[in-house]
Each structure stands twice: as structure tokens, then as C-alpha cells.
Design goal:
By secondary structure, the chain is an all-alpha fold. It contains twelve helices and no strands. Helices cover 82% and strands 0% of the residues. It is a multi-pass membrane protein.
Amino acid sequence: MTPTETRRRELPFWLIAAILLAIAFGLVIGADASYRVIFRAVASGIWVTVFVTVIAYAFACLIGLGIASAGLSRHRLLREVATFYVEIIRGVPVLVLLFYMAFVAAPVMVAAWNLVTAPLQAVGLIEPASIRDFDLLWRAVVALVISYSAFLSEIFRAGLQSVDRGQIEAAKALGLSRFKVFRLIVLPQAFRTVLPPLGNDFVAMIKDSSLVSVLGVQDVTQLGKVYSSGTFLFFETYNVVAYVYLLMTVSLSLAVRGLERRLQRHRDFIGDRR
């Protein structure tokens, strides 16, 4: 039996302990009135956390794939621009990027919009935009998209480069266009390779989404901060906040691990057939 098979058959004691701890704390929330009130107050921000995470991650994936494709382009200019973007954005902390997007880039974008649409504003077709029109929630989403797209582009780049060059050359020899080669040959195989790390980064974004609370976005962290500052129940409140995040992240981590095992079994099956 290989070490990998041994690990698969091991009883996950850590998971049993985590489940028992989650059940125990859930019973505490159900039995204690103060914990129930805190949970209801904090849980109302879960949808904001999920919304920010899903929207930001979806756009980050699209932009990251485009940057990865540009980084592997035959044109040097595209490669240099993609490398510049990745290196600069990865060097800026997410929190700093949030502040920069909220208080520096957003006013510039609004001013640029007013400048471009000035003729339409002059005839009364549209109203001048105000910085208040750019909601803080969307500023946070844009900041997360920019930050994570740089990291995801490296995952996509590694996945694209993992595809066997022989298959690409064979597809070209059969007369497939570059777009069809990418869509039918490269992308499906690269997607299977990058899916597990993409899942891990999705879990990481759920945790990093808590940073949007610094802008006053009413997510789980912000609601917990507001409630604890008003009641001084810091211990109880942040226990609940941590519990909510752990439920989301551990559940998704288990799903990612299950997906990895399924993909590995699929690869092993294909390898045995060959």
C-alpha cells in the first residue's frame, strides 16, 4: 500500500474533533440567550460576505485568466505588461489596496467619468456623478478583484504551461485554429490542473473579505465589531464571528479536498487505461 493510499484510509481525527467542537459551540449558541442574540446580529452579514467573495472571485478569475494568457503571448509587449501588473499588485498588501481603491482611485474614476460625460451632462441627459454614488461595497469588490487577479493569473499560467506541447502541435496539424486549440485542448486540461489551487484561493478570499469591514461594509466582521463595541461583549461576539467563518472555510476546504481526491482518481484511471 502506497503512502498516499495509507493517508486516504486514515481516520481523520482532526475532522472528528472539529465537528464535535462545532456541534458543542452550536449547542451553546442555542442554549444561551446572549449568544443567540449575537449570532442573529452577526449572521445577517453572512450574505454580504458571500456576495463580496463570489462576485470578486468570479471577476478575479476572468481577469487572471486574461493576464495569464497575455503573459504567455508571443508578443513581448503583452508579456511585459502582464508581468508588470502581476509583480506590482502582488507587492501591495490587500488592506493597502482597499484603502487606495476607496480613497484615491475611486475619486479619480468619478472625476474621469464626469470629464468624459461632460457634453451629455451639459444638455441634461445625465446627472454629474458623485463620489457617494460609488458605493463602498463596490470599491471593496474592485480592490479584491485587482488583488486576487494577480495571484490567480500565476495559477492559470502554471496550468496552461502544464499542457503537453505535443497535443497542441497535433491539434494545429489537424487544422484547428489557435482559438479552438485553446478552447478544446488547452483550457479543459489546464482547468483540471488548476481547480484545486483555485478552490484554496476561494477559501482564502472568504477570510480576506473580512478586510472590507475597515470601509464600514456590513459584513460578518463589521457587524461583530459594531455589536461588541455597543455591548462590550467582546469575548462572546468574536467567538461567534470566528465560529461563522470557520463553518464556511472548513466546509469549503473539505469540499476542495474531496475534489482533489476525485480528480486524482480520474487521473489514475486515465493512466491505467493508457
